Amino acid sequence: MTRTELSRTIDAPVGVVFSTVADSSNFSEAVPHIEHVEFLSEARTGVGARFRETRLMGSRKATTELEVTEYVRDERVRFVADQGGTIWDTIFTVEPGPDGRGTRLRMVMEARPHKLAARLVTPLMKRVITKAIAADLDAVKAYTEATG
User: Which of 148, 129, 145, 144 lies closest to 6, judged by CA?
Assistant: First the structure.
């Protein structure tokens, strides 16, 4: 298993930051390298919401099908995907900032490979994954501070 954990302090209200990360329509607005979101369920947010996200990863497009498996408004949201022989389990949490202002956004992603090739490749991808996650969080920070 590979675990990646990153956080940002954002000068925007908890509700604004949460709705940006918990609603894939808002997240795709905030993160410029997400090209398309296709909903696969009637629900667009909350437990059971399923969608397919297409994003640029370097010069290649990658499409991932995700499902919301946990949702506590203005606290945490969990997305799970089974992609490339790996279970990608991502939790975003939000809480008031350390000085009582703004929001502390934390993201924890666990990658659990279940196929041989993925067991070999996933640990090697950690640096690339961490860089991509950091870019996503920076984009959420810039977006929510501009709109929040």
Answer: 129
Strand, coil or helix: 47: coil
Q: Phi first, then psi: what are they for 91, rounded to 5°? A: -120, 125
What does the pLDDT read at residue 51? Answer: 97
Determine the Cα–Cα distance for residues 138 and 135; give it in Å rounded to an integer: 5
Q: How far apart are CA 8 and CA 76, in angstroms?
A: 15
Q: Residue 97: what are its φ and ψ, rounded to 5°?
A: -60, 165
3-state helix, strand, coil in the chain (%, to 5): 30, 45, 25
For residue 76, which amino acid is it? R
d(CA 97, CA 69): 26
pTM over 0.90: yes
Place of tokens 């296709």: 38
Strand intervals (E) in 58-131: 60-72, 76-83, 86-96, 103-113
